[in-house]
């Protein structure tokens, strides 16, 4: 999405020639192929382990929870998992940062308020959703590394449901009709609270 935003804002007249069906298909195939390869290795490392415990202490079944069910050495799994996380997050954060820095440079050089406004509106939603994804991912990684920091399971479970649900709210507020209805609800509640005083 960051690359798409970059092309749309920095090369708007060339967007159709750069973001062709072939380019979109190529980017999608590469993203899915890398994900399948990395997750396939992760599953392969997990399947080879024997299990001596049967209770998952985490609130959902993820790979790190499966490692903890084994009494064998999981050093290879932990090294791969850490490398996987570093490569995945590093490449993701790096590419998003580079593309958004380029977009920011174009906006700073441009004197067009319309372009800057549209760029901000387009990029703000993507960055908000991306930040929510990163925060959710970091919470899960941190809670696996430091289980003593884990609050009661219900609080974490609800938190991991609420954060992704914000995606719909963020993108929904981009729609003019939805935004107007939300503003009308806030206005009504503000008027009602003033009348109550």
UniProtKB/TrEMBL annotation:
It is found in: Membrane. GO terms for cellular component: membrane. The keyword Membrane applies. GO terms for molecular function: odorant binding; olfactory receptor activity. It comes from the Eukaryota. Keywords: Membrane, Transducer, Transmembrane, Transmembrane helix. InterPro entries: GPCR1_Superfamily_Member (IPR052921), GPCR_Rhodpsn_7TM (IPR017452), Olfact_rcpt (IPR000725). It is a multi-pass membrane protein. Pfam families: 7tm_4. SUPFAM superfamilies: Family A G protein-coupled receptor-like. Residues 1-171 form the G-protein coupled receptors family 1 profile domain. The chain crosses the membrane at residues 29-47, 82-103, 124-143. The keyword Transmembrane applies. PROSITE patterns: G_PROTEIN_RECEP_F1_2. GO terms for biological process: G protein-coupled receptor signaling pathway. PANTHER family: G_PROTEIN_RECEP_F1_2 DOMAIN-CONTAINING PROTEIN, ODORANT RECEPTOR-RELATED. This is G-protein coupled receptors family 1 profile domain-containing protein. It comes from Dissostichus mawsoni.
């Amino acid at each position: 999405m960051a690359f798409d935003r970059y092309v749309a804002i920095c090369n708007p007249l060339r967007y159709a020639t750069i973001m062709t069906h072939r380019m979109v298909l190529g980017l999608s195939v590469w993203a899915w192929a890398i994900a399948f390869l990395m997750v396939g290795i992760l599953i392969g490392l997990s399947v080879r382990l024997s299990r001596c415990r049967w209770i998952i202490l985490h609130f959902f079944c993820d790979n790190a929870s499966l490692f903890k069910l084994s009494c064998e050495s999981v050093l290879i799994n932990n090294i791969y998992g850490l490398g996987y996380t570093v490569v995945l997050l590093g490449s993701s954060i790096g590419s998003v940062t580079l593309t958004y820095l380029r977009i920011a440079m174009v906006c700073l050089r441009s004197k067009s308020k319309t372009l800057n406004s549209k760029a901000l509106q387009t990029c703000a939603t993507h960055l908000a959703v991306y930040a929510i994804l990163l925060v959710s991912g970091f919470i899960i990684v941190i809670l696996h590394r430091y289980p003593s920091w884990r609050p009661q399971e219900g609080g974490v479970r609800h938190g991991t449901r609420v954060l992704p649900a914000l995606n719909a709210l963020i993108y929904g507020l981009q729609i003019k009709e939805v935004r107007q209805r939300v503003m009308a609800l806030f206005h009504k509640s503000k008027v009602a609270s003033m009348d109550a005083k």
